[in-house]
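PROTEIN DESIGN WORKSHEET
SECTION A - STRUCTURE
LENGTH: 277
TOKENS:
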């Protein structure tokens, strides 16, 4: 299933023009400090905008500075509080430095959204180059592990309690002939999520995952370019009859990170329009 979405039926997050409140007194994430990976585009960028609108002070992390800068400036223009930091999820030093920078900027860490990922060329696993296998696992599995380890340490040392959400994929919940290595990495993320929830729940740190279905992002644009018609195929399997916008996926992450989900941990929440119903 989709790592994140399909051809750009919608050019951008449809809610990006909603004003961001400058006073963070009543939002879903009011007064929380949020760290977001993969925040330069797609679901991560939508999450950064949404979290800021909901009252959080956000730190955006990704590898492409031009994208991070554009989203950060957009949030600030709308009245939100945002900073960005360059981060390579395959580099342990980079990941730790990004989380540490969040604490330096805002004094603590309350919530984290580990959304950054890399895709794979579609095709059967026996035709997938070993170097590409290593890259997909380094970013999509080792990256969230590195991030969670740093985030848990930061939450424990500052806020004391908090929440983490990892981005999985609906393609992790079944056999995935299109994206077998991507799906395997995301299924492993589900296991890490459950293990972290059990391990750190006694400390008041909740850990959940979301499993998006087809979502309108650049990643699925690339899939469509390599496999023409795949988005129509995925949409035909979706009871709601369409792909999601990045904002719709971000809404699920925001709820799981908020205090309104205070008794939810260890869950993998499908946000897939009913495709796995």
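SECTION B - SEQUENCE
RESIDUE ASSIGNMENT:
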């Amino acid at each position: 299933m989709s790592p994140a979405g399909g051809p750009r039926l919608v050019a951008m997050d449809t809610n990006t023009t909603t004003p961001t409140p400058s006073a963070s007194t009543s939002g879903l994430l009011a007064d929380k400090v949020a760290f977001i990976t993969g925040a330069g585009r797609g679901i991560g960028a939508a999450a950064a905008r949404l979290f800021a609108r909901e009252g959080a002070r956000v730190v955006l992390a990704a590898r492409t500075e031009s994208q991070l800068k554009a989203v950060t400036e957009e949030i600030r223009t709308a009245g939100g509080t945002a900073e960005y930091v360059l981060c390579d999820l395959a580099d342990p030093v980079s990941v730790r430095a990004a989380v540490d920078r969040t604490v330096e900027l805002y004094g603590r860490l309350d919530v984290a959204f580990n959304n950054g990922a890399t895709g794979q060329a579609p095709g059967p696993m026996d035709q997938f180059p070993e170097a590409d296998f290593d890259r997909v696992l380094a970013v999509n599995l080792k990256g969230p592990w590195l991030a969670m380890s740093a985030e848990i340490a930061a939450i424990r040392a500052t806020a004391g309690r908090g929440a983490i959400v990892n981005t999985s994929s609906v393609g992790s919940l079944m056999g995935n002939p299109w994206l077998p290595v991507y799906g395997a990495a995301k299924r492993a993320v589900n296991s890490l999520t459950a293990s972290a929830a059990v391990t750190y729940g006694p400390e008041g740190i909740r850990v959940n995952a979301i499993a998006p279905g087809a979502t309108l992002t650049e990643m699925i644009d690339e899939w469509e370019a390599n496999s023409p018609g795949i988005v129509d195929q995925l949409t035909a399997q979706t009871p709601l009859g369409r792909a999601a916008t990045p904002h719709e996926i971000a809404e699920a992450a925001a709820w799981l990170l908020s205090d309104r989900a205070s008794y939810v941990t260890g869950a993998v929440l499908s946000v897939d329009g009913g495709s796995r119903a």
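SECTION C - NOTES
The two ends are 14 Å apart (CA to CA).
The domain at 33-271 is CATH 3.40.50.720 (Rossmann fold).
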